[in-house]
């Protein structure tokens, strides 16, 4: 009996080099640094994203010192000399993600730039993607593994979009962005109470619809999606750092009903608050 024919697919010449293998994530965790913690100069074979959830640290990459605080995201390439220093008495909590693309090159710098400091993304959709990636990474199964890869690629897409926006921002756009930051900070400081659109209009001098459009463009979400994000992050902090019950946490971030809070958290994070806390237990 003749063997069935074997077919090979070859990319057309014009498409060569346009497709890349997905990243392989070797580590993704939320790290609570002990007092006066640090990393001596070293080089890794992987790329690394380091996102500051809370606190302060100095991150040095090939002789350049980058002061990082809450919301800051940095990265380094494989085989780049780097070290980390914290200060006595200063907390440092970070999301750390290590990944590589095997033996195939990937145009990381083309996408997100050569500057190892990528920006401050407190409350941005990028922060949400990082948190979701951590939650999926600590769950077993191929579905969660694939979700992690997808979230990392979404992260690259968001960072690339932010890079392009920075390169094309005009003076007028910068003023609008400043007002959006004002609104963002106001929400972050008053997340534990009801906030209405009228309040944001009076604060910024802009109309409701204009605020929604520009805030989404600046941060990847609407003001009230951001409010939800702030509440989620605060709930996670309280769950990890205190002995408060879920009901107490819900009330402290502006929810009178614990069931409404529970549904909101799971809809946004994909897991319940208790499941999320369990996933953070590492050696």
TrEMBL record:
Start and end residues of each HTH araC/xylS-type domain: 181-279
Pfam families: AraC_binding, HTH_18
Keywords linked to the UniProt accession: DNA-binding, Transcription, Transcription regulation
Protein name stated in the entry: AraC family transcriptional regulator
Annotated organism of origin: Paenibacillus spongiae
Species lineage: Bacteria, Bacillati, Bacillota, Bacilli, Bacillales
């Amino acid at each position: 009996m003749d063997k069935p024919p074997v077919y090979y697919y070859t990319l057309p010449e014009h498409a060569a080099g346009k497709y890349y293998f997905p990243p392989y994530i070797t580590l993704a965790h939320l790290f609570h640094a002990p007092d006066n913690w640090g990393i001596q100069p070293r080089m890794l074979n992987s790329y690394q994203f380091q996102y500051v959830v809370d606190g302060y640290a100095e991150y040095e990459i090939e002789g350049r010192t980058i002061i990082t605080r809450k919301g800051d995201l940095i990265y380094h390439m494989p085989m780049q000399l780097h070290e980390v220093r914290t200060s006595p008495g200063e907390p440092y909590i970070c999301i750390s993600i290590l990944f590589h693309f095997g033996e195939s090159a990937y145009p990381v710098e083309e996408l997100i730039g050569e500057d190892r400091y990528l920006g401050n993304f407190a409350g941005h959709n990028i922060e949400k993607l990082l948190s979701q990636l951590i939650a999926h990474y600590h769950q077993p199964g191929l579905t969660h593994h694939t979700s992690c890869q997808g979230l990392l690629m979404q992260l690259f897409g968001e960072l690339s979009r932010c890079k392009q926006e920075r390169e094309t921002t005009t003076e007028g756009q910068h003023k609008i962005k400043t007002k959006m930051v004002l609104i963002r900070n106001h929400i972050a400081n008053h997340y534990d109470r009801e906030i209405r659109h009228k309040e944001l209009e009076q604060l910024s001098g802009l109309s409701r619809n204009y605020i929604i459009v520009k805030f989404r463009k600046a941060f990847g979400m609407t003001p009230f999606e951001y409010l939800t994000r702030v509440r989620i992050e605060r709930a996670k902090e309280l769950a990890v750092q205190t002995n408060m019950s879920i009901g107490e946490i819900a009330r402290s971030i502006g929810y009178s009903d614990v069931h409404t809070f529970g549904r909101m958290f799971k809809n946004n994070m994909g897991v319940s608050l208790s499941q999320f806390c369990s996933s953070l237990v590492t050696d």
